[in-house]
Hints:
Elements: H1 3-6, H2 12-20, H3 28-38, E1 43-46, H4 53-64, E2 73-76, H5 80-93, E3 101-104, H6 111-119, E4 122-125, H7 127-136, E5 146-149, H8 152-157, H9 161-169, E6 176-181, H10 186-195, E7 200-203, E8 213-219, H11 225-235, E9 240-244, H12 248-260, E10 265-268, H13 274-286, E11 290-294, H14 296-299, E12 307-312, H15 319-326, E13 336-342, H16 347-354, E14 362-363, H17 377-380, E15 390-392, E16 398-404, E17 410-412, E18 428-433, E19 442-445
Parallel strand pairs: 1-6, 1-7, 2-4, 2-5, 3-4, 5-6, 8-13, 8-14, 9-11, 9-12, 10-11, 12-13
Antiparallel strand pairs: 15-16, 16-17, 16-18, 18-19
Amino acid sequence: MVEKFRKLGLKEEFLQAIGELGFKEPTEIQEKTIPLALAGKDIIGGSATGSGKTLAFGAGILENVEKGKGLQSLILVPTRELAEQVSKSLISFARFKHLRISSIYGGVSILPQFRELLEAEIVVGTPGRILDHLERDTINLNKVKFLVLDEADRMLDMGFLDDVEKIIKKCPEKRQTFLFSATISEEITRLSERYMHSPVEIAVDNQVDPSKLEQVFYDVRSYEKFSLLVHLLKEENSALVMVFTNTKHNADYIARNLGKVGIDAMALHGNLSQNQRTRVLEHFHKSQKFVLVCTDVAARGLDIKNVSHVYNYDSPKNSTDYVHRIGRTARAGKEGKAITILGEQDYDNFRNVQRNPDLYIKKIEAPEFERIQMSLEHRERRFSGGNRNFGNNRFGAQRRVFHRDRGGRHSGGYGGGEREEKRGDNGHFRRKSSFRDRSRRFSHVKRSDW
């Protein structure tokens, strides 16, 4: 059953593991990457989420990592969910070697990670939390033989370039490096030139079948966008649906209002705790009909299968982001549909998307639909005492949570830019008002997840 994998040069114990997991033949990225990985080559792989790249780079690592010899492989990923996903996959592949594989990320207590890092042979982690451990001297990269930069384009988009480079410099120069990215930008190329040794470049076809993906857009007044979304969600023959927004604020707003009209929907974005994010994704995977409202950063790196429809409630800013979004559907020979709902504020972004000559997005006249009044409850509660941004401390003073934006500045409420992980990973600073002077005096409070 695994004869095609055997031809790639894998050992019998590894073949037995992937055979028991139901793997029958390698994907394109696996077929091209595994022999090179086993031969000790540095590799640049142009491959999207869901293409099978974890097994592609994992095979070479798992075949060569030795139990009990310390940390020998570091895999950097942009998000917490991807860290969990990659580590779980590697654990299942390595079942016969009994290796210790740990996922290290922020948003959770750092204390249990100290012991894990003492025993792990392979670590999958986000840049912010790995750098935290380096600064605490609780992780030792001196024996790392394999370094992986997974979803490298997204890590750079999220502002992790400096952190990634600091981590790379702590690894031995004599190592094997794998870099995987959905797009190979000039910045990715420069990174590879600085830190890789004669890398072999591999590109694979997009996993999305264009012949099975219908792309359309509607142009309506901005205040009609939500009403049209509800109409389409009810009328389209959809199963698992992803609705993309450009901000965390909008993701919460849309998900809450969909719930009020009887549609099973939940939001996924960087402000959620790890437990909240895990519950959202578990509900998504267990459901047959469900709407996940998410931001680009929160969704990137998640291998979510069986998505029938992708909606752009907010137009992406460029064609690259558009392609990443619609790549969630029409996979593995299945049909899918990508729907963009435009309001006046989306025109500039959508013109940027349409500059890509390879995209054909057909305009559809909007059908008759019922106008729905969206609830403004969460906006009214935004400055009340019982919501996530304001609360009362033990002296009765107000407390506000400030968020880092993409430039590192602090902003209150929902104003901060999207940040998934950055030096403590949830990006939160709390400022507590002084009992003596509530209006002007603030003092920093230690980050909750440190």
